[in-house]
Amino acid sequence: MASAPVKIVALSGSLRKGSYHSGLIRAAIQLSAAIDGIEIDFADISTLPFINTDLENQNGVAYPPVVEALRKKIVEADAFLFASPEYNYSLSPVLKNAIDWASRPPNVWAGKTAAIISTGGGFGGGRSHYHLRQVGVFLDLHFINKPEFVLNAFQPPAKYNADGDLIDEDAKTQLKDVLLSLQAFTLRLRSNN
């Protein structure tokens, strides 16, 4: 009997219209169509209010509706794909905000698997991975260790087109390897539970 598909929720830590990180998620969604047993759903975090506990438990609702919608998506997911830009050697405020909202009681991240992908200059945004992994310890997230995905967006040949879509075939192959690793790790954890 075939196991249920691995449901992955993807979050981009960049709000820019032509974001390369959102481009990575679009590429992952396209690549997942050729991988049996993976479904990727993009979670738009651009409209979340800044975390503020004064917004909780108002009018008989635990969280604002947009926060509740994100939390529901996370509850229904098996795994997460974080496209994490590097802001001052760390993760972006918008991504941390989404993480913090979903960690409010009850923490809906706990016990699930995750992968991090980054792109940018120099180290390709890789320093954000370290802080996101640290945050994941408290969240009880289980990150894949290999392969790591950091992509220097500005080193020739061109990695993206003018719309921010990933066009580099080597990078697509590496991204597919991340998805396969995340799927395998999720299935291993699922079989142990």
From TrEMBL:
<dbReference type="Pfam" id="PF03358">
    <property type="entry name" value="FMN_red"/>
</dbReference>
<dbReference type="InterPro" id="IPR029039">
    <property type="entry name" value="Flavoprotein-like_sf"/>
</dbReference>
<feature type="domain" description="NADPH-dependent FMN reductase-like">
    <location>
        <begin position="6"/>
        <end position="153"/>
    </location>
</feature>
<dbReference type="GO" id="GO:0003955">
    <property type="term" value="F:NAD(P)H dehydrogenase (quinone) activity"/>
</dbReference>
<dbReference type="GO" id="GO:0005829">
    <property type="term" value="C:cytosol"/>
</dbReference>
<dbReference type="GO" id="GO:0010181">
    <property type="term" value="F:FMN binding"/>
</dbReference>
<dbReference type="InterPro" id="IPR005025">
    <property type="entry name" value="FMN_Rdtase-like_dom"/>
</dbReference>
<protein>
    <recommendedName>
        <fullName>NAD(P)H dehydrogenase (quinone)</fullName>
        <ecNumber>1.6.5.2</ecNumber>
    </recommendedName>
</protein>
<dbReference type="InterPro" id="IPR050712">
    <property type="entry name" value="NAD(P)H-dep_reductase"/>
</dbReference>
